Queue: 4 jobs
Job 1
Amino acid sequence: MTRDDARKRARELAAEHRSRGDAVGWFEKLYVEAGGDAEHVPWADDEPHPLLVDWLAREQVDGRGRRALVVGAGLGDDAEGLARVGFAVTAFDVAPTAIEWCRRRFPDTRVDYCVADLFAAPHAWRGAFDLVFECYTIQALPLAIRERAFEPIANFLAPGGTLVVVTRGTDAHLDPHELPLPLTLAELARFEALGLERTSLLDAVTGETVPLRRFRAVYRKR
Ligand SMILES: C[S@@+](CC[C@H](N)C(=O)[O-])C[C@H]1O[C@@H](n2cnc3c(N)ncnc32)[C@H](O)[C@@H]1O
């Protein structure tokens, strides 16, 4: 299966589920259909996101003695990247099959992989993390529910904690029904409205599989 086929199938599944009023159930369906073959998972890159790796190196991040949380962990590469620089990492995903897959891929991992829904996350995670990493989860949520995604993410941060968001970026939503739907800077500004301070913004066309405009926004909780 090519990456384009995988994207096409993901869009079909998302549309099918949305027509039944279910914005999130298609992720589990996609992971089940993939049957352990990452070629079927359009966002599987077998390595931590290059914009995360670049930020960790640039900031000379040392995670030892600090806790990190990965939102919508997918197949776990970002979580493993954060564990490698010393963080005690919790990584969650709403899709049980993704979490089982992470545990199978990384049998000796120090990452705590768990099934959880961003919209009903454990209370104990509130204010508990020095670093929160979100990559491509918000953009995969339809507009009707994504506006509720910002607050729980901001709330995971401990005082002084850092949030790193990597997402496709756009100036305007041309087709609000198409997923993934890149984020605008106005949408990202919700994090500031929730009391975070933006400390950097990268707005660039970056390579990976397809050259696309991406944002890497970094925030600090006061
Ligand atoms: C587009 S994928 C990106 C995965 C990963 N962050 C990456 O960059 O490879 C979005 C992920 O978020 C998960 N997800 C979607 N809605 C979620 C929710 N409400 N709570 C937790 N995870 C969710 C999906 O199951 C999927 O693994």
Note: The two ends are 46 Å apart (CA to CA).
Job 2
Amino acid sequence: MLKPEQLALPFPEIQTAPRTIIARVHRIFANQSMKMGDVEWIGFDMDHTIAMYDPSALDSLCIHSMIDRLRQQGFPHAPTNVDPSFCIRGLVIDKRLGHILKLDRYRVVRKGFHGLRELSPDQLAKTYEARRIRVGTPQFFGIDTLYARSEASLFAAWIQSLEQQRHSIDPSHLFDQIRTCADGLFRDGTIPRLITDDLRRFIRKDPQLASTFHKLRSGGKKLFLLTNSPWPFTHAVMDYLLGSEMPEYPTWRHYFDIVITSANKPQFFLERQPLIEQDGDSKRPVVLRASTSFERGKSYEGGNLSDFTRLLGVPGDRILYVGDHIYGDILRSKKEASWRTGLVLHELDDELRAHEASLPDIQRLQDLTSQREELEDELRVHQTLFKDQSRQLESVRATRDIAMTSAVEVQRQLEKRTVERVRGLLQSNESETRDIEARIEQRFHPTWGPLLKEGTELSSFGQQVEAYACVYTSRVSNLLFYSPIQHFRSPRDLMPHEF
Ligand SMILES: [Mg+2]
């Protein structure tokens, strides 16, 4: 058994990065204020958190593996061409109808596709009205991981292929088959084996990852790894990422005080799973006594929140957990454990780029919104005047005073023309607004627009990020740019009346 030694901390040679403005791609954004000085333990998920996958290589591997297996199982008419980037995270599958939907922060459907065909606003309104969609019911399945994104893209292409060939389908059955197939490919080790056979192809090495962990440790933090991946896969990936990065750390395990694999999140947060001590192929349940504690250098499997926090001996708000899965990592750890949470959003780089490119358009939209409000006020005033003139005209006509009638009619016509002019300006304002909004959406994603927003509101995914992630960022190594006692401050919340 490997017995890594606790490194003397802090390392005096580690310098805090010079105090400069941090580029937006390296920023950590705070939804809730968090003092890193209060955080004693920092835990990390592995897949898509520490380990950043090449999205196109992984999506393509998952999609081709699913098609091969479903074909072997006799599933007909597999699509020949699947665009793996068709779907984004945060979408919802309507299994019963075979639609893929994007919801706003109130869980109301705002965009939808059937196969690769866009559903019109009228079709969506007729099907869903304005009711809130309850994700997680038998009908609606949330695409909240990067793995599930490839399942959704395959589902859309398969529906399209079957319908083009005029085959009747049960979308719910098709989606369940894809889900079961995807789970099977991970559970039986097929996809993990293909990844470990070519780690360089599937996983992007982050040159600053080791220094980030080193800096956190030198700042007095204790680190743990809590991953759903099993030990052999975890070891292969972590060894590739950290195995020989810094001479102070003979193996990747030296970066972590506790390693838990096969954690089975979110059940880890919800059920009393037993904690297993794992050593090579041998496994034995940990008998928990008052004196039991985690042993540095040992690896564990399973476990549960209650035993875990008791063995750490710190309150939940002194633990920061960093993961990529909004439900399994972030929502559950926040709700069940009051842990501080950090969401890794690999899509954030693209979102920031699109946002930056859209700044002049966003400014123009704000101007158009102010202009629209002024025009609407102006329209209301002149409509009222026109109605007044119309009433006055009827009254003076009754008096048969031709001169007076003519004068009022002139005024009335003037008001009418003003109303028409303002209406015209409003129409061109709305048309320009629509064009700019479409242009902005295209910059984010050609089909679904921004990940975190829907129109001027948060998307349902954005709302979850805002509600459950204390902080969010694009990669773990962005922690390198901050002090281990950084105070992350959330922007002040403003209500509409305070603007
Ligand atoms: Mg993950």
Note: The two ends are 61 Å apart (CA to CA).
Job 3
Amino acid sequence: MKNFIRAENISYTYKSTNGDRLALNGVSLSIAAGEFVAIIGTNGSGKSTLAKHFNGLLLPTEGKIFVDGLDTADEKNLQHVRENVGMVFQNPDSEIVAAIVEDDVAFGLENLGIAPEKIRERVDLALDDVNMSDYKNFAPSKLSGGQKQRIAIAGVIAMRTKVIVFDEPTAMLDPQGRREIISLVKRLHAQGLTIIYITHFMEEAAAAQRVIVMEKGKIIRDDTPREIFTDVKEMKRLGFDVPVAADLAYRLRRKGFKLPQKILTAEELAEALK
Ligand SMILES: Nc1ncnc2c1ncn2[C@@H]1O[C@H](COP(=O)(O)OP(=O)(O)O)[C@@H](O)[C@H]1O
Ligand SMILES: [Mg+2]
């Protein structure tokens, strides 16, 4: 499949009076249209800095990044880049801009100068996509964290970008809110969207097709969830948890149970133990 995003050896340094901070240190990657990629890494490993390069919010200090074949460092490409790559951040409160749900979802479209009846149509479809149609006329402040985050996602869906980058969208949510978001993300991927999903929940990362592991501004692993999360000893050494079933399989094997090497899910573990 066609590479929609391609980073060539990008580095990024935050400059401040307290000194410079090298946040990305020679990152290269390609993401194809339609992929579902998770990015994990300890705090400060550069995940958010990388995410902001995907839609030109940050420009690399060194190297180049291309979105849909266009260099984000070229100002005339930025509009196309932003129309194709949407972002969802951690804190839904900081993303809500309007006093009524449907106005909030419409906000990005109004800025694109789309006709009002078209806007209403797109907003209705987007609210339906995130199962929030019943809340169209609500004040966002009355909603739960998970509902607010779904409103923020509806705003991006309404823009009809090809890619959505999620930067720890579930970090501030309760388990119920987290489940709502991850099932919505899976649905969006099934509809054909390209998903880049930053998380520190390993069960969420395991839902992706591919997991990128970052450490100190570099990509240190890039593989399937199965390969990454069944390498339990190495993941623990790097300071990560692994999904519960993978961890349990690892512990049982160490106690002498004869189990297949690459168990990732509870179903696989149950089947192996039968
Ligand atoms: N605005 C900023 N100014 C200076 N340093 C920053 C800024 N944002 C992030 N950093 C630093 O850059 C590094 C990477 O940060 P970030 O991309 O936010 O990591 P992550 O999202 O993986 O936690 C960290 O060392 C962080 O302290
Ligand atoms: Mg971050």
Note: The longest helix spans residues 175-190.
Job 4
Amino acid sequence: MAAALREIERQVLGEIWTSDEPYRNLVHLCDGIGHRFGGSASEHAAAEFLERKLREYGLEQVRLEEFPVYSWERGECFFALSAPVERSFSALAMPYSGTADLEGVIVDVGAGEAEDFGRLGERVRGAIVLTDAESDVPGVERSHRADKYRRAVEAGAIACVFTNRNPGMLRITGALYARNPGGDAPLDHTAPIPGLGISYEAGEMIRRLAGLGELRGRIRARNRVFRSHAFNVVADVPGDGSTHQLVLAGAHYDGHDIAQGAIDNGAGAVVALELARVLAPHAGRFLRTVRLVWFACEELGLLGSWYHCDRYEHVDQNELLGFMLNLDGAGRGQGGSEQVTVTGDPALARYFSRLAEQLQYPFTVRDRISPHSDHFPFFLKGYPTATLQSRDATQGMIGRGWGHTEADTVDKVTQRGLQMSTALAARLLLRLASEEHLPASRRGSDEVRQVLVEAGLADVLEHHWGRANRIA
Ligand SMILES: [Zn+2]
């Protein structure tokens, strides 16, 4: 590594380790501004805050990238059993759920995998489906909520109730998808059937009561889908001008309306903000421009990243995107168990494994395709991508841990966790911005398709839930 770059690295790391700026930013984002739900005034306020901070850090190329979205507002939600005993449960409507009054048999599909629905066949038609929100084993990811929901819709269910698998009386949330993608009325962007989130304890109780006789349930929900807009925030730390190729690091800054969204993904957003602060003084000193992007509306279906990714093809073809680093999940937890996940690319995995040795900072590297965060639109367009996350924040818990519940709060994040993720992200970006040749190049659409087919994920090419929520 060149001496000049090593000196930049020393200064950058010194700044990171002697500042509490990211923690203070997180507190402001979460305690001061709030949930930052996609398309809401809270999200707009967060975009303004990010822009103000970036200018304060001395960056000149900062812009808000506005795009239209359908947003959603919750109203009352009532869920009760009418048989075998009468009992009401605290429940949350999931984003894009509409307004409904319904009553029906409850059919428990357990994990909600394809084979579970297959086994129950026609019994699901006309019924309220009860399913696990996530896989039942810590560290294991199987079907996404949207997959289970789609199975319920296709099987003719009238509602889908998701039970959290982590104890703590925490109702789980997560956006659903539009009933008529591409339509231009709020009803088109309302989910085909209501989706509800209940706690682990409620789900377990309902399952015990099933032993007493047929389960029947009642749902009353009042919600509103409305047209709004959102902003990606984009800031460049310019390179030395010798190439149009740039490297991008992005973090979604939106959250769910019921939570502070500190671990998902306030932490990643302030890690990106800290990268801006520490890299800004070194503008013009790397080969490639480092572009930092704060994505809006990730939780509503990756809406900000779909929008931003499209720009490289349709708006500014002069800008060549060389690499995308996703920071969804960075900075949460205690720090020290960072993980880089590449997306169906063994050569890239080898590159990062080598870096883990060279940096004298061990982090784990894995190769796994997840269609459920902001790297995915970039992956589909063939760009090399990786996601940096802190693993310890969900250790021993199912799936997202506190994420997507009211317990996703600032107290789950530590200053050290933010510092360690920022330090690693900065070192990775410094190399990616300075390597003579990037470790991977853009793939064609046939190659991407092949990678997806081999991973058993070919169906996301036909329907990705988030795409349905976009405004074309
Ligand atoms: Zn996230």
Note: Residues 402 and 408 are 5 Å apart (CA to CA).
